[in-house]
From TrEMBL:
GO terms for molecular function: ligand-gated monoatomic ion channel activity. Keywords: Cell membrane, Membrane, Signal, Transmembrane, Transmembrane helix, Transport. GO terms for biological process: amino acid transport. The chain holds residues 23 to 253 of 480 of the full protein. This is Glutamine-binding protein glutamine transport system permease. Belongs to the binding-protein-dependent transport system permease family. It comes from Liquorilactobacillus cacaonum DSM 21116. GO terms for cellular component: ATP-binding cassette (ABC) transporter complex. It is found in: Cell membrane.
Amino acid sequence: APQVHADKTYTIGTDVTFPPFVYANSNNKYVGIDMELIRSIAKEEGFKVNIKPLGFNAAVQSLSSGQIDGVIAGMTITNERKQTLDFSTPYYESGIVMAVAKNSKISNLKDLKGKTVAVKTGTQGATYANSIKNKYGFKVVTFDDSDNVYNDVKTGNSAACFDDSAVLNYGVKTGLGLKIVTKPTDIGQYGFAVKKGQNQKLLKMFNAGLAKLKKNGKYDQIIKKYTGKKA
Ligand code: GLN
């Protein structure tokens, strides 16, 4: 009898709000660079994806405990994360910047003395803030979603936030109400991740698909669509 070929479905965790990489559009569909990349790669390589917008930290935790197959969420490839996760070839680059409310007088790290800084749980921005908080004398508050981080700064509860330059640059351009006051530091690369030693076929397909999208112009097209810039 002829064999019916059914594409395998992988469950992919992602962030809730991290534009231009992942966010819900007005039809409540998850769009952005990461969403278009994973969907295009799946199409190219012949697999299906079930996207789960769990939030950044929850997605990484779910991946580490084997509840989902992969994560694409503007996640920086770090040596620490490589202890528990395997990463794809990099697909984007970003550093960390400090942002303050548009009308704020805070303009550098020294101005943070005695103030509160907002970050998102489990991110490189949070790691960076915690690594310098004693030196500059500020307190750190964490939120699970970038929206709440930015709102805490806009309402004045927090004097500043630390987050990815690629995301805050986009935010500034799209009317987030914040301004960036430092140069990017801790430059890193974004990668798709699977649990260490697991889902190696998925990882290989991601890399192969990404290479094809880079070759056929689709990658450039996606980057241009969301950033207005050439890749
Ligand atoms: N790139 C940052 C990190 O990996 C932030 C990711 C995110 O907030 N989705 O920690």
